[in-house]
Amino acid sequence: MADYSLAKPNDPPASGWKLRGLVAVAESRIGLAAINWSNNRSCPGLLQNTRQRSYPEEPRSLGIPPAFDVQPQECDATPTRPCSKCCSDEQLSDSKQEQVVDSPDAHATLEAALHSLGHSGTTLCSTASNARPTVLDYHYAYEHGMITPSQVADRVIAFLERLNPDFHFLIAYDAADIRAQAAAATARFAAGSSLSVFDGVPYVVKDCLDALPYETSYGTTFMGKLRPVTADSPCVAALRGLGGMLLGKAALPETGAMGHSMNPHFGATANPQDPTKMAGGSSAGSAAAVAVGLCPIAIGTDGGGSARIPASFCGVVGMKPTKGRLADDHAAHGGYSSTIETCPIAGSVADATLLYAVMANISYPTSSMPDISSNKALPKLAAAAAAEAAKQPPRPLSLPRELLPLQPCSAVTGEYVVEGLTPLKGLRLGVFRPWANDCSAGVADVLKQTLSRLEVLGAAVVDISLPDLDLVQAGHLVTYTSEMAADGMAAGWLKDWSLRSQLNLDTRLFYCSALSFTDDDYTQAQRMRTRALASFQAAFQHCDIIVTPATPTVAPAMPEQANTTGVFDMAYNFSAIRFTQAANFTGLPALVLPGGRLMGMSLPVGVQFIGKPWAESSLLRTAAALEQQMLEDGLPKPLPGLAINPIECAVGVHPKARELTQKLWAARYKK
């Protein structure tokens, strides 16, 4: 078993006068020396890994992982026992159980996703007045005149006017624009010419992505004025073309730099599961909006867990695709990042599949790769990044052939069931025990229960080794923060004191720390990335998916200073991304979904699946099977007590919505 040792700073949170003092020192002439001293004191291993160790590996700067060439193990089969290492014929291999979509057209990818859903396009929890309706619930209700998009818009706007001032789901919304979109969708349904199953379905977009008619503020008071928005981001344009109803820009901490939900300028985003707790971040508003029922889908971004952490805290599904899978990942924060990816967030695995399909791109957009040689903070790897981008082969979108296998209905409920079936037979789930158990006792219990359910579904749990997680931690820290700072310098606002001084204190301290890393540190971090990828490739010789908790704890309490000075909490920042940052640093796909609730509390606990490069299909299939098994075990999705169901008059339509899915599938694919 590999050694396991991650840095765990125990510095107390800084706020108020203490935070002001830290920022004053960090921004002074002795700031660099003070930051290096502080880092050496708080987490000495990080700087030792970066500055005192040598790595023979070539630096890997682009962040797009190669396809892993997993070699077959030596067979140990006997006449009476099958091989314990070889893949069985029924294993969930992508080549056997996926469909490949060659078209970049969003209508084509959506149709393929509907094919994947088959009968599993809805969930069993769409039965209560506070339920989160699915995309297909909305579509069926609209198609059959049970409610109109305009009526939904009125309900959503009323909810926002009443609760957004306290919960801060959205930084900006325009009631007139929402009603205009809804009126257009209502007219299309009246004319029998709806654009897609997304027509009139509400969604929100994290405020670091462009979406007309809004500014892109990145959670700051000034960035929205620096660059006018002239067009939608590609993922927003795709949803708009399918008729999606944009509600507004979802909240985030300033610049999306950290994994909390505090923003003194626009208000801290509260967790719908418990308003005294944080929603997580930085895609806080996106996850909270889905959790509270404002919309079934949302768009976020993820640079170290920014979509998966709030998904875990709020009890929804968050998926970070393989780096390079989506068209606008490089622009997620207004510039270049080798760790940030645009992500779907949804209330169910089925809806995450639909949204992922329309967001995905068939190949990495090399023409959009930034010339980081113009960014003086990162000059040494510009040529390497450009050369690596040019070598990337086309990556057609792949989706599950069936999100859940066809199976009989329950005679009692009329629902499709997985009980007694083994849809995950042959799937090997890898667990690195020292890493997976580095969490609270309650989270560890939920993970244990999750693994047991997955075994009931046919999967095999195997122990694996991941020896370089300390390098992942150090390398990701240097890479992520350096690239964030480099973007700020290139855009000019980080070196303009009149603008930089408008940032909140905790954000200013983050950027002071980020600017302390040198070009040599960055190059060294890319060598660590190469080694980390090799470690994960070796682990995937023994498994198909790696399973961890999503976060070490459930959602923490919202600090009292969340809406005043803010809080800089290094211990929380390191803890929150303990399990999520590896997928960002290596570029691997990862998916988080609710695994249960903490005993005696109302807070959800998320579990994470990490997959091989470009193997999102396996993650979606596995998550869908677990989600269904949990429902059959009497563990419905963690719905908050405070929630809105915008189509409440159409509650209970999900069996018919499933029938609609089957008809769509039959009409478009069954030959």
From TrEMBL:
Domain (Amidase) ranges: 160-373, 418-620
The organism's place on the tree of life at top rank: Eukaryota
Signal sequence, renumbered to the chain: none
Protein's recorded name: Amidase domain-containing protein
Organism from which the protein derives: Tetradesmus obliquus
